[in-house]
Amino acid sequence: MHPTTIKTYAERAKLHPNPTARRLLEIMERKKSNLAVSVDVTTVKEVLDIVRSVGTKVCCVKTHCDIIQDFTLDFAKELVRLSQQMDFIIFEDRKFADIGNTVTLQYSAGLHRISSWADLTNAHPLPGPGIISGLSSVGQPLGRGLLLLAEMSSKDNLATGQYTTEAVQMARQAGRGFVVGFIAMNRVDIPSPVSKIQKVNGMVNGHGHGNASVNGNGNGYGGDKEMEDYLILTPGVQLSKGGDTLGQQYRTPHQVIFDSGCDVIIVGRGIYAVKGKEAEVAEEYRKAAWEAYERRLRC
Amino acid sequence: MHPTTIKTYAERAKLHPNPTARRLLEIMERKKSNLAVSVDVTTVKEVLDIVRSVGTKVCCVKTHCDIIQDFTLDFAKELVRLSQQMDFIIFEDRKFADIGNTVTLQYSAGLHRISSWADLTNAHPLPGPGIISGLSSVGQPLGRGLLLLAEMSSKDNLATGQYTTEAVQMARQAGRGFVVGFIAMNRVDIPSPVSKIQKVNGMVNGHGHGNASVNGNGNGYGGDKEMEDYLILTPGVQLSKGGDTLGQQYRTPHQVIFDSGCDVIIVGRGIYAVKGKEAEVAEEYRKAAWEAYERRLRC
């Protein structure tokens, strides 16, 4: 059992150095929700309608601001207001994937000014550590958080094996101030418990979920692994398994939270595509994911 | 010597099935320019000023529309008008990196409507082939082209080795209608000539530039490799070697075009940061890259 998965969200909130991670964990505990809704719709009205319907059920609203045809900073302000009123965090799923100089501008500038309203965003580790340096120069002073994409949910993606291992290492090398976790399908951060002997040797060899195999002694990460606390947010979730025609693959809340030890399920079409019943369906997801978490704590 | 690198751009233009690739190769020949300028500036006025200064020297203008604070579709229209008047193609360096369903919307919708004005865009192969299916469903009917990022220029990036090999395979599996080439540092598409014996066996083992090792017989690609023609566009170019503080690394035009056999150099800060002398400096880059190409043809 991964040490992080047997702690309550409340316990984890108390110890986290990043304000956004702390707030997310507090909200999860307070609302008994480890459900994020992904609002992949293309107008301000649709986004706000869905958020108003399901905002009380979720810990996090995930946006794609660049698909919204009438996006304005006033809309962003309204979303921030709702996030305070309905108690959720805003996660712009930008998947930054460029060199440091460019992502710095993409995060802070342009029509969207993502850093001015999104509590959390994410980036691919692909361009190397410069992407984290660039984004943190903008986001860390604002108390924002960053997730690295260590795995993806889509068919035949390349974020596997050594790639995933390097994503985790890059997060560790960056420290805990800005990189607060991963987008992943599994508990990619040291899946095995740290034995005393391993600790003395400074070596941790991950196993159990197939992907992570981490040398805890490497390159700037030499710390106390019990202090580590990465949030794992997992996309590709529906109440029944399946996929779409463009390679998306779905798992259930129980698989994600109980079997794989992840922290938050991200549900998109499973909620927003069920027109008129969004709140009802969101409650089903919230309940399923929360029960899986409670069951995990009892193990 | 890679077979593509000993053909003229004019010869290659005649045979290419994709209209954007064909137009780019024709422009390169007509203007004697294998120089793309990257306009990484944050206002419409700055972008247009740079384009008006250097537009006649370049075959391609590379944009980051999401860093422009006053972007409008009218600006995009003006850019398209200039691209016709000054004879260059527009390449939006979006680095799509999401699942098929999402990139379809990011490419066609939102405030930027990239597919409506950008001749060329690019994507990371990381999410798997669904990203190509999604983008091509929008772009191919419009005659647009897509580059896959097979390598990156930034320090300690993860687009190396097997990742690069899989990027090239993914392009081959997608066919030649929409994926027209790569962002790469090297000639990643089969660096070695295809011998008759290899052709009989259906096997091509790449070597020479360290990254590509491609099984030409695999999964949907069984064709005549002499017909293959991928454009390789290469970022991270300055007249002198060096880097920035966020991990960018620079090579010279000669290294990129002559030594590595790439097709187009992409120059950003090397041109637009030399205020007031953009046209003069662009001409230096154009000349250096074109001479490297002519020298390559004589080998």
Detailed description of the structure:
Two copies of one chain form a homodimer. Chain A is built from eleven helices and ten strands. The first copy, chain A, has one domain: Aldolase class I (TIM Barrel, Alpha-Beta Barrel), CATH 3.20.20. Chain A has an eight-stranded parallel beta barrel with strand order 1-2-3-4-5-6-7-10, surrounded by seven helices. About 11% of the residues of chain A have low confidence. Chain A is globular and about 45 Å long. Chain A has 299 residues and is α/β, with parallel strands linked by helices. The interface between A and B is large, with 48 and 48 residues.
Largest sheet of chain A: 8 strands, parallel, barrel
At the fourth level of CATH, the homologous superfamily of chain A is Aldolase class I
Number of helices of chain A: 11
What is the multimeric organization of the chains shown?
homodimer
Instruction: Give the SSE order of chain A as H and E letters.
Output: HHEHEHEHEHEHEHEEEHEHH
Helix content of chain A: 25-40%
CATH architectural designation of chain A: Alpha-Beta Barrel
Question: In total, how many beta strands of chain A?
Answer: 10
Shape of chain A: globular
N- to C-terminal separation of chain A? 9 Å
CATH class of chain A: Alpha Beta
Please list the strands of the largest sheet of chain A in the order they lie side by side.
1-2-3-4-5-6-7-10
Low-confidence stretches of chain A: 192-223
Percent of sequence in beta strands of chain A = 5-15%
Q: How many separate domains of chain A?
A: 1
- Identify the biggest protein-protein contact and residues per side: A-B, 48 and 48 residues
CA-atom Rg of chain A in angstroms: 18 Å
Helix/strand structural class of chain A: alpha/beta
Instruction: Give me the CATH fold name of chain A.
Output: TIM Barrel
Give the integer mean of the pLDDT values of chain A: 89
